[in-house]
Specification:
mainly alpha; 10 helices; 3 strands
């Protein structure tokens, strides 16, 4: 340690092993990021402006979109700036902030997805008591729980990661400051923090997955007992989009993080991370809205209202 070299910035290697990646690849990533940003922003704007969408389902979707924007904006713009400029450095403070934000928003998203599963369970299995159970006060408390819980779970671990000495090499084999590649550069024993992170990740992911799985088992059982085919189809449609998003999220994140953070195939992790941070956030707004006539009607009302206002002005 006495002769170690300490760094105030890191170098993100990105996709250095894929030498044939050109400007077109990063332009595609930029397009996916912009589509994701526009899609989630539209959800936030339309839900905010349209009173008919002031329901628990859309309120939680509003929060989910806010977390998605925060997560992708923490990672993708920096990667694209580095790629287009040819400068692959990131300051130490920026790197630690990136680690904190990515995992905090991930925890928030998992909690919100769990809450959304509970909301769908009440809507399908206890429709007569839905409004009495899912009150605006409870929705606000559950949303607050997601945000405070996400920050509370990740902040103590981030403080420990921040306090480690980093020396020797400053090369991070990733396109963002993922926890595993960062801890590999620490000049200290990271076994304890890796174990804690693994346990936290397992509790958050498996806890969320288990609760959602139980909710959907009850939902499917209720749907199967609906006498009419039209009723079954309508009930399934109300939760199909959420079920698709759940499947994508759990599959990607469990493949990446349900193992010690410094272990695993780097190339595979980068590929899954890229899908998780670019393609999936772009896809989610379409999954939730493209077949949702209620949202499309609300969007059209907002657009026509804004157009009318602009003409009158």
């Amino acid at each position: 340690m006495a002769n170690a070299t300490f760094f105030n910035e890191f170098i993100l290697l990105g996709f250095s092993e894929f030498h044939k990646l050109d400007l077109g690849f990063y332009t595609l990533l930029l397009l996916m990021y912009l589509l994701s940003l526009v899609g989630h922003s539209l959800i936030i704007i339309v839900v905010s402006m349209e009173p008919k969408l002031h329901t628990p389902m859309y309120f939680f979707l509003f929060n989910f979109s806010a977390a998605e924007i925060s997560s992708t904006t923490t990672e993708i713009p920096k990667m694209l700036v580095n790629s287009f400029s040819g400068k692959n450095t990131i300051c130490f403070t920026c790197c630690m902030a990136q680690v904190f934000m990515v995992f905090t928003m991930g925890a928030v998203e998992f909690i919100i997805l769990t809450v959304m599963s509970f909301d769908r369970y009440v809507a399908i299995c206890k429709p007569l008591h839905y409004q009495m159970i899912m009150t605006s006060g409870l929705c606000r408390k559950l949303s607050l729980l997601a945000w405070i819980g996400g920050f509370g779970l990740i902040f103590p671990q981030s403080v420990v990661v921040w306090s480690y000495p980093y020396c020797g090499t400053n090369l991070i084999d990733h396109f963002f400051c993922d926890i595993g590649p960062v801890l590999q550069l620490a000049c200290a024993d990271t076994t304890v923090i890796e174990l804690i992170g693994f346990v936290y990740g397992a509790v958050i992911m498996w806890g969320s997955f288990g609760f959602s799985l139980i909710s959907y088992m009850r939902i499917i059982n209720t749907i199967l007992h609906i006498p009419s085919a039209t009723g079954r189809s309508k009930a399934f449609f109300t939760c199909a989009s959420h079920l698709i998003v759940l499947t994508i999220f759990y599959t990607a994140d469990m493949l990446m993080y349900l193992k010690p953070s410094t272990h695993g195939d780097t190339r595979l992790n980068k590929a899954i991370s890229l899908v998780r941070t670019s393609f999936v956030p772009m896809l989610n707004p379409f999954i939730y809205t493209i077949r949702n006539s209620e949202f499309k009607t609300a969007l059209w009302k907002v657009v026509t209202k804004r157009t009318s206002f602009s003409h009158s002005a």
